[in-house]
Structures are given as C-alpha cells and as structure tokens.
Amino acid sequence: MIHTVMEYLSKKSKLFLATLGFLLVLFIGLLDYLTGTEVSVVVFYLLPISLVTWYVGRWTGIWASTFSAIIWFIANLKIHYSQSFALYWNELMRLGWFTVFVLILSAFKNVLEHEKKEAQIDDLTGIGNRRFFNNLMAGELLRASRYRHHFTVAYIDVDNFKVVNDHFGHSTGDSLLRLVAETVKNSIRKSDVIARLGGDEFAILMPETGYESVQRIVTRAQESLLDVMRKKGWPVTFSFGVITFTIPPNSVDEIVKMADELMYSVKNKGKNSIAYEIFPECQDTEKVKYI
Fold this sequence. Notes:
The structure is a single chain. By secondary structure, the chain is α+β, with helices and mostly antiparallel strands. The protein has 2 domains: about 1-120, no CATH class; about 130-290, Alpha-Beta Plaits (2-Layer Sandwich). It is built from 10 helices and 6 strands; from the N terminus they run ααααααβααββαβαββ. It has a 6-stranded mixed sheet with strand order 2-3-1-4-5-6, with helices on both faces. Helix 2 (about 15-35) runs parallel beside helix 4 (about 60-75). The mean pLDDT is about 85.
C-alpha cells in the first residue's frame, strides 16, 4: 500500500506536490487551532514537510518547515502563557526541530539515491551493469508497448578474450574491457546506452532506432573497436547480435536471450561479424543477415 502511494506521488509534478504540501499545512493548522491545548497535533506537521522534502527538494522542505512554524504560531496565539516569551521560544524550537528534520531526511534520501546508483554501475568499466540494463529495458519495453515505438538491442562479445588474459595478464584484460566500454560509448549516439552484462559481454540499447539506422551505428562501433585493438596489439575481434524489435516481446529476459542467441550464432559461424535480425518479421534463422 505504501509502495503504491509512493509510486503514485513520484509521478506527480513538483508544483503539484509542493502545493499539496502547503495546503496540508494549512489544514493541520486549522485542526491545531480547533483542538486547542488539550490535544497536540504538532507531529502531524511532519507529514507535509516530509512529503515536500522527499519529492520536491531540501530547500522547498525548509520553506515548508518555516510555513508550518508560522501556522503553528498563529494557531496557538490564543494560548496564555505565564511568561510572555514562551510562545516565541516555542516557535523557535519548533522551527529548529522542523529544519533539522528536513536536513536529516534530505541527507537520508541522498544516501539512498547514491547507493541505488552505485548498485547499477559496473565497478570495472564505470558503465551500467546488468541490473541497470534490465531496469532500462523494462522502461523501454513499457514505452514501446504503449506508443508502438521500435527499438534495437545489440549484444556484443569479445572474441578470444581468454587469450589476452592468459598471455598478457588479467590487468591487461581489465584495461581491454574498460577500453571497449569507452570506445563503444564514444561511437554510439547520446540517446543510446551501453552496459556490461558480465565478463566480456556488453549490450547496447538504441531507442526508437530502425533497421537502416542501426547498421550505420553498429558498423561504426565495430570498426572503432577493431581499430583500437589493432593499435594495442591485442588479438581480439568482436561478435555482434543485433535485433530490431518492431513489436516488443513479453519480457526483458526474452529480449536479452534473443540477442544473446543471435550473437552466439555469429561466434558459431567464425566470429568477428555482425548478425542483424528484425523481430517479429524475421524469426527464421535463414533470414538473418550476417555482415
């Protein structure tokens, strides 16, 4: 239930959420005024403050804290204190408490976002990992299903990578993988995304990219990779399995499996080549185009 509410709120605009938060403060202030001194509702002010801080930002949360403190002050003007400064002292204390709460909540959110981001980054290459790619593909799958957009996935394997590890050492193998990630990233468009799926296997997502356009992109990436490997003197090539989806499959796993199998068909035919397929127009392997 809570997850559903949070997901619903995350889809709303910041202006809507900020407005909702400040309106809730006014409602709680009215409730505070009507209940008088017998019932304390001060803790309820934290609800709109939390809402605004989490979904809009720290500074908006601080403004919500200040507004809440002012509303609380107005709602409690009717209370008579033995010491006249008590009302103002309590006002400052609540403002300080609200502000500290905002800072702690904002810092906690930043830590969570940082950890979530780190969990989707490949430590070796600095690009997205398999989890990142799967999440990215899940979003693309939803968009493609809703708007009938086609997209392309390229699966890349480094041929003879074990040879580099055995003859040059694992540190050289790590350098090779980092260079592959950097080279492909520089060869594709800004809208395309590369991720390392594990070992010496990479994948590229090319949103809204048709069969004709993808050939230019992938060919450029392959040529750049081969050129870099020749300059380094590393005896590796690259096998590509590239599928353009005009109608999306049912799951991300199915997409990755199809691209993986197409890539392995290249390796089985001698490696160092690119296989193109359009799904669902080309489901027969005899119709796959090898370049």
